[in-house]
Every structure is written in C-alpha cells, then in structure tokens.
Design brief:
disordered N terminus; T-fold; four-stranded antiparallel beta sheet; 351 residues; alpha+beta; nine-stranded mixed beta sheet; 18 strands
Length: 351
C-alpha cells in the first residue's frame, strides 16, 4: 500500500466504434492493489491477448509494490532502511531508478519533495487510532534524521547509504507513479493499440478509444466527492493528483493531511489539491507531492519552467473558498458558471 492517494477520477470509457472498419474493442478489469482499486482498459482486436496483457501489467505492479512498500516487512525498501545506516546497500535497478528520480525532484523543488521523510511519517498518527499532534521537541528530533542531502548514492554499483543513523525512506509519493509507468510499458510490449491505467485516480493514458476520441476523465471537487469540477481529455500523458482530503485527521477543526513538509516536519497547509500532467507518471507523482508543499505561489513558476509539465493547483482561501490556478497548456474544459456555482473561483488562467 502506498499512502499517498490522489483524487478519484471518473473515467468515461467508450464502447466499440461502429464506424471503425475493424473490431477494435475496449477490454477492462479492476483489481485491489497498492491499497486502492487499480483499473486498466486496453484497446485491442484480440480478447485473449488483451487479457494476457492486463494480467501481465497487474503482475508487474504487484511485483513493484512488494519491492517498494514500506508496509511489507520483507520488501526490498525495508531491507534498505534497516541496513543502509551501517553500510552501503546494493539495490535493484528499479529501486535505484526511483531513488535517483526522487533526488532530482528534491533538487528542483528545493526539498519540498523528499523520500527521506520516513521518520516523519512514523511520527505523525495517520495510521494510529489516537490522533494527537506531535510535540515540537519530537519534531525537531526526527527532523535531524530527514534530508535528501544525507542520502549517498553510487551509480557505479547501484548502492545507497544513509549518512545519518536512523534515516528511513518512504516512497509513497512516487512509487505508485513508477508502477503505473511500468504497467504501461508492459501493455505497449503486448501491442495494445491504446490503454488507460487508473491507480486510485493516478492515471496514464495513451492512444485513443476505438471511435478515435481521446480518453476523458472527470476532475473531482476536493471538498465534495459527488461533484466534478471539470472534464479533461488525455492522450499519451500521465496525470497524478495529491490532495489533503483522502487521508487526514482533524484537531480543533483544523485539517492535517498525510502530505508532510519535510523541511518543517509539519502537515502541508498551502493547498487543497495539485494535479500534474507529464510524460511520466513517476515524475508527475513526485512533482504533485512537492507542489502540494510549495503551494501555488512557488509551485506554479516551477511548473511553468519545466518542459512538458502542466498543473492545476487548488487552494483554499481564508473564507474556505476554493481557487483554481491553471498553468499554460493544461487541457481543462472549463465551465466557469459551473465552477462559480460550486464556490470555486478561477484565480489564474494562461492559454
């Protein structure tokens, strides 16, 4: 299970296209995986090959979950966390790739995204029955064991070493995106003409439906799960969302989400949700988490500086009114009247 779960997206799948000369169809299935419902849909002429491709893609995601989950005692990640303070640990190619990408995202977000957040995630009571805030003393002690600059990696032998004893990695902000990317690679390897992978609202779509139309997804309202803010079209792109509403608790009416600022040790408070679109789900996954911490003011300039990256950031004002910040190129089909009726203000829009 990976703890960072983005917003739930309604996926509108098309049926067989009557105008298409060949019998291309959508084959789809859903399975519980990584602590959520993972749905996959593929476009193919061959049902047997389509379901073989789906099985193989699910198997690949399950393999990566077993490798990178902090909740599995026998995972490679937990072995690394147990040993890397004592000596460099050689890890698998996949785990090393995730760690290297994570370090890159840490650098460009100035530490707002940081996989060494493990000790902080253990301190906060997201998975405990009693929801009490950690003390400032406890936070300061744990923060001494957090910081991506203390992570020593060597590409020569794919080794990882913790420069400070007691460090621990948590890949909840990026591993699910990486698993989605690998599932897509499997589907393409099986020759699937088009596909959509939806892991708890984190999505990669490529190709088009049998009628030639792009995949369409609905963007959920972060404060009302029954409402959609807008409809988006997707093709050959990943879309990942981080939000403060899937896993959180309240203390004295204040919301504390599972997105932790690794610099302060406190729950990120700047944003309600961040949706990032990029060519890689892993890249979008890490960026969405980092921008949740950065907030719109610092996060949007970062998005605009990154080629091929687009984002929608939803912030909550002092009167609990939601504001949308949309980057240039984000494929959003806006209905401003509908947004206004839902109490959402379009704060910034560049086209």
């Amino acid at each position: 299970m990976f703890h960072r779960i983005g917003i739930i997206l309604g996926v509108f799948l098309g049926l067989l296209a009557a105008s298409c000369g060949r019998n291309y169809e959508i084959f789809q299935t859903t399975r519980p995986l990584m602590g959520t419902a993972v749905g996959m849909a593929v476009v193919s002429q061959d049902a047997r090959r389509a379901y073989a491709a789906l099985d193989a893609a699910f198997d690949e995601m399950a393999r990566l979950e077993a490798m990178m989950s902090v909740f599995r005692k026998d995972s490679e990640l937990n072995r690394l966390n147990e040993e890397a303070s004592r000596h460099p640990v050689t890890v698998s190619e996949e785990l090393f790739q995730v760690i290297e990408l994570s370090l890159h995202i840490s650098q460009i977000t100035h530490g707002a995204f940081d996989i060494t957040v493990g000790p902080l995630m253990n301190l906060w009571p997201f998975y405990k029955n009693e929801k009490t805030l950690p003390s400032s003393e406890a936070l300061q002690e744990v923060l001494s064991r957090v910081g991506y600059r203390h992570l020593v990696v060597s590409s020569k032998d794919r080794s990882v070493f913790f420069a400070i004893s007691g460090m621990a990695l948590d890949l909840g902000g990026i591993a699910k995106g990486f698993a989605i990317d690998r599932a897509v690679r499997v589907l393409k390897g099986y020759g699937m003409a088009a596909a959509l992978v939806n892991a708890g609202g984190d999505i990669f779509a490529y190709g088009s439906k049998p009628d030639g139309q792009p995949w369409r997804v609905g963007l959920q309202h972060p404060r009302d799960s029954k409402q959609l803010l807008a409809v988006l079209t997707m093709s050959d792109m990943a879309m990942v969302t981080s939000g403060d509403y899937e896993r959180y608790f309240l203390v004295d009416g204040e919301r504390y989400s599972h997105i932790i600022d690794p610099r302060s040790g406190f729950s990120a408070r700047e944003t309600a949700s961040v949706t990032v679109m990029a060519e890689s789900a892993a890249y979008a996954d890490g960026l969405a988490t980092g921008i949740m911490v950065l907030g719109a003011e610092a996060g949007m300039p970062l998005v605009e500086s990154l080629p091929g990256v687009h984002a929608l950031i939803i912030t909550e004002g002092s009167k609990k009114a939601l504001e949308l910040h949309v980057s240039k190129g984000f494929p959003l089909l806006l209905d401003e009247a509908s947004l206004a009726a839902q109490g959402v203000q379009l704060k910034a829009l560049e086209r």
